[in-house]
Automatic annotation (TrEMBL), chain A:
Pfam families: BPD_transp_1. InterPro entries: MetI-like, MetI-like_sf, Phosphate_PstA. It is found in: Cell membrane. It comes from Pontibacter amylolyticus. This is Phosphate transport system permease protein PstA. The lineage of its organism: Bacteria, Pseudomonadati, Bacteroidota, Cytophagia, Cytophagales. The keyword Transmembrane applies. It is a multi-pass membrane protein.
Automatic annotation (TrEMBL), chain B:
The gene is pstB. CDD domains: ABC_PstB_phosphate_transporter. Keywords: ATP-binding, Nucleotide-binding, Phosphate transport, Transport. Pfam families: ABC_tran. This is Phosphate import ATP-binding protein PstB.
């Protein structure tokens, strides 16, 4: 075999291997999805969506769970969005390159890798025990905000960094202050990117069960939360609870709840993809 | 050079990026309502000097200057000078056209809006006047609400000039304003510079010596952070007094 034949063979071999690697993830995911859908889709109906939890599988619904998930989604967004974006702007636009800013930067990156259950313990200690707030929605949202804050900060910085230096120069040269430049030029130009990051972070928060279980969110909440100071449950906790029951009917319930949870996260990811696409179409540097 | 008043002056100016000295003891006086060109090879300090004239280097970590820069006799690095006020007086046009990703109208009135001017009538009048001064009005008057990014490169650069004119500066700094443009757009920019020098003091950095010859009244040759020679453009190009200048303008290096 000549060298060039060998090279072509290697090339071909890698292509096949690459296709295999690409599909292995997709196939596993597809099998999982199909299994869940077959198991659960028949269970989803109006009653399932609007019923309170129950000891009897056939009467149990996920009203409190998805209402709790939506509450958590909105509250976490309200908390993490301004904090994360402000921190990102500060680090990228204002902070001078010093040892301190390097230290902050490395640690924010590290925080993004801390397991979520640790954030749950932090939330338990800080908000539930120290601040005596109890295992309420606000505490859940605060805890999840801490969890996604590093991601929001990092994506905000990436989006801001993508705005060319020349745009800032143009604004400064016309007499704009730093804040005017950030507010009028940098933020509008990077907003799509920032929003994309925030939404992806939120879709991660929505899927979390562990930190919320640690702070004391309950599986059985017989009412829909009316204020941020009410106790709550969320879809992942409800799913976790149902899958640990022995009865097959509860497993069907869990599968149906998983479909609803997946729809929520797919919807969020879809919005993120749409925003990014629109941003790319609108602004070409 | 003493016939007209000097608008901008540098006295014993040194500039540093950290430990690197980018400008060495620059002394120069630039005439009002005339065009002064800075020429010299890459890295000679001409752009650095241009950017000290409206303090655009302020945000660069480690940048500092010693010496004085006077605008109408006032030290622009004095502690009581506000940078935003200075930049209203000294406008700037960059190498690469950098319109904001907004409408043409929003681009022109941006400088006025950030000063807090909200009156639609004032803004619209300023927009038309500035675009006319920048010889762009006829091309864009029907699409002021269209994105500035849809304009050609040459139009974008004239828009950036209009944007700088809108805040009524007395000095306009241009950092190789035509180097990213085609010959026809370049000619339009040069024509515009001729027109503008009736009312504005213009300082232009250029790599293109023919351009310096065509547009400027005075030329300053920078080399390795030093101002080697500063003279009437005609004199400089016909009988330079320094051999380094001669070598550069005859194309022996650079």
């Amino acid at each position: 075999m000549t060298n060039s034949e060998k090279n072509r063979l290697k090339d071909k071999a890698f292509q096949v291997f690459g296709i295999f690697c690409t599909f292995i993830g997709l196939v596993v995911l597809a099998i999982f999805l199909i299994d869940i859908v077959i198991e659960g889709v028949g269970r989803i109906d109006w009653d399932f969506m609007t019923s309170l939890p129950s000891r009897r599988a056939a009467r149990a619904g996920i009203l409190t769970a998805w209402a709790g998930t939506l509450w958590i989604l909105v509250l976490s967004a309200l908390i993490a969005f301004p904090l994360g974006i402000a921190a990102g702007i500060y680090l990228e636009e204002y902070a001078k390159k010093t040892k301190l800013s390097d230290f902050l930067e490395i640690n924010i990156a590290n925080l993004a890798g801390v397991p979520s259950i640790i954030y749950g313990l932090l939330g338990l200690e800080l908000f539930v025990r120290f601040m005596h707030l109890g295992p309420v929605l606000l505490v859940g949202a605060l805890t999840l905000s801490l969890l996604i804050l590093p991601i929001v900060i990092v994506t905000t910085r990436e989006a801001i960094k993508a705005v060319p230096r020349t745009i800032r120069d143009g604004s400064f040269a016309l007499g704009a202050s730093k804040w005017q430049t950030v507010w009028n030029q940098v933020l509008p130009a990077s907003f799509g990117g920032i929003l994309t990051g925030v939404i992806l972070a939120l879709s991660r928060a929505v899927g979390e069960a562990a930190p919320l279980i640690v702070i004391g969110a309950l599986a059985y909440v017989p009412f829909v939360p009316k204020s941020p100071m009410d106790e709550f449950t969320v879809l992942p906790i409800q799913i976790f609870n149902w899958t640990s029951r022995p009865q097959a009917a509860f497993l069907t319930n869990a599968a149906a709840a998983i479909i609803v949870l997946l729809l929520i996260t797919f919807l969020l990811n879809g919005i993120a993809v749409y925003l990014r696409h629109r941003q790319q179409k609108k602004i070409k540097w | 050079m003493t016939k007209k008043q000097s608008k901008l002056e540098a006295n014993n100016l040194d500039a540093y990026y950290g430990d690197f000295q980018a400008l060495k003891n620059i002394n120069i006086a630039m005439e009002e309502k005339a065009v002064t060109a800075f020429i010299g090879p890459s890295g000679c300090g001409k752009s650095t000097f241009l950017r000290t004239l409206n303090r655009m280097n302020d945000y660069i970590d480690g940048f500092r200057i010693q010496g004085q820069i006077l605008l109408d006799g006032r030290d622009i690095y004095a502690t009581d000078v506000r940078v935003d006020e200075l930049r209203k007086e000294v406008g700037m046009v960059f190498q690469k056209p950098n319109p904001f990703p907004k409408t043409i109208y929003e681009n022109v009135v941006y400088g006025l809006k950030i000063q807090g001017i909200k009156d639609k009538k004032i803004l619209q009048e300023a927009c038309e006047k500035s675009l006319q001064q920048a010889a762009l009005w006829n091309e864009v008057k029907d699409k002021l609400d269209k994105s500035a990014l849809a304009l050609s490169g040459g139009q974008q650069q004239r828009l950036c000039i209009a944007r700088a004119l809108a805040i009524q500066p007395s000095v306009i700094l241009m950092d190789e304003p035509a180097s990213a443009l085609d010959p026809i757009s370049t000619a339009k920019i040069e024509e515009l510079i001729h027109e503008l020098k009736k009312n504005y003091t213009i300082v232009i950095v250029t790599h293109n010596m023919q351009q310096a010859g065509r547009v400027s009244d005075h030329t300053a040759f920078f080399y390795m952070g030093e101002l080697v020679e500063y003279a009437k453009t005609k004199t400089m190009f016909t009988s330079p007094s320094d051999t380094r200048t001669q070598n550069y303008i005859t194309g022996r290096f650079g």
